[in-house]
Design brief:
Elements: H1 31-44, E1 48-52, E2 68-73, H2 75-84, E3 89-92, H3 104-107, E4 110-115, H4 125-135, E5 140-146, H5 148-152, H6 171-183, E6 188-192, E7 203-208, E8 222-228, H7 235-244, E9 247-253, H8 260-269, E10 275-278, H9 289-300, E11 307-312, E12 315-318, H10 326-336, E13 340-348, H11 361-364, E14 367-370, E15 382-384, E16 406-415, H12 421-443, E17 467-468, H13 471-477, H14 479-484
Helix pairs in contact: 4-6
InterPro entries: Nucleotide-diphossugar_trans (IPR029044), SAM-dependent_MTases_sf (IPR029063)
Organism: Pseudorhodoferax aquiterrae
Pfam families: Glyco_tranf_2_4, Methyltransf_23
Length: about 500
Amino acid sequence: MKMKLFLPDDYTVRRDNPLYGDVPGELVYQPDVYRLALYLAQRAGLRHVVDIGCGSAGKLLAFRGHCAVIGIDSEFGIDMARKTMPEGRWIVHDLEQPLPPLGDDVLRDAVVICSDVIEHLPQPAHLAGQLADLARRAPYVLVSTPDRDRARGWLDRGPPANPAHALEWNASEFVRFLREAGFGDVPFHGHTINTDHHRAKSTLIALAGIHVSPRPCPPCKLAAVMHGFNEVDILPEVLDHLAAQGVEVHYFDNWSTDGSWELAQERLHRGQIAHCARFPEAPTDQYEWHAQLSHTTSYAQTLDATWVMHHDADEIRTSPWPGVSLRDAVAFIDALGYNAIDFTVLDFRFVDGRAQITAHYERDLNHFEFGRRPGHFRQIKCWRNDAPAELADSGGHDVQLPGRKVYPVKFLLKHYPLRNEEQALRKIHHHRLPRFTTEQQKYQWHHQYDAYKTVERVTGWKYKDLLPWHAVHFNTEYLVERISGIGLD
């Protein structure tokens, strides 16, 4: 049965395109595809990278010293690859024929790349089906191709302007084609930059593989340990979200004066949180973040939870898969053998001139910026609770535990620290800055609000300085950034 290509009925496929030679030049094409592949390999501790259509192999030089390189391409491409990396394993092959056997010992320990290759084939279905088979055997498989709509315009019906291309898809067509080829729901798909110079989001990218395709797994108990101080306006929303995500909450109130403590006690009595207590034993005029973090890890050791998450009172956490709860996502990651989880930070902001938002923050605060402070790029705050963990020395950003193996795909941390003018002014000038002084001097922490020390009013952000939030758009347009942080540096 012939596989559908999902191209428009009036699309013209080029049947006589010449063999393309990936000769090195000034531009690096699909740079973040290869950066992502290396990131996945390093975090997962994989020993092989398999590049199908490797060309001259210049982008594989970054893997030197990290992975054994296997490249598959035409004789012309392999001749260049051998000169670029003599130590690689190079296989001459016609990509319209069945791929050479690689062996499960290689594939189970490999990231597979097929970057901007499939559009060169007048009959791409066979290669796509083989890539789908590899995605059922290898942890990670990356496939990329140009987006016809973004590269050529919505009315383009082929043949492609690039004479070496036989055909090009748009985003919807390509995902449907991959699904038809056997990739299933294609867990991650979106756009990435085309070259290191142009940086236009005109390249489609899909990530599949056995480590990114969630399946039902034996349940794990996931507990959130939360320290909070005067966050009563957002605390109900956070607690409701965690309950809906299947997360057991252990709340420690740092002597709030705004009703947070009373709210937490009420939730405890209603059975909506598992534990509620005050910490430290008496009120203090300092924030004592180091002590709170040390308490989090020591308390975690008393729990029967399989996994523990260090969680702030002004955060909404989600798994990287829409519709998959935190509890189910963690169970899947646990079954894969990873024992720690990283997060990508989005700081949501209130906008200057807009009516003040005082509730329903996740719904109504819909402009954000990626967290770009140094601590934001490492947010490893969820871990398997089978050995003592250390969290305090990193300021809560980077949990340390024996034999740590961080799941490469980052979860999402939606942060709502400053929610309207009144709340922001009160939090910065009354609840934070006066209480930060000791740890600022001792640890060089808590400098995020230094710019507000001399201001009497905290104004909102400008629309032009923020990104609009739309979940579907975010998941596809910022795919590489959200799952890895690549492109945010």
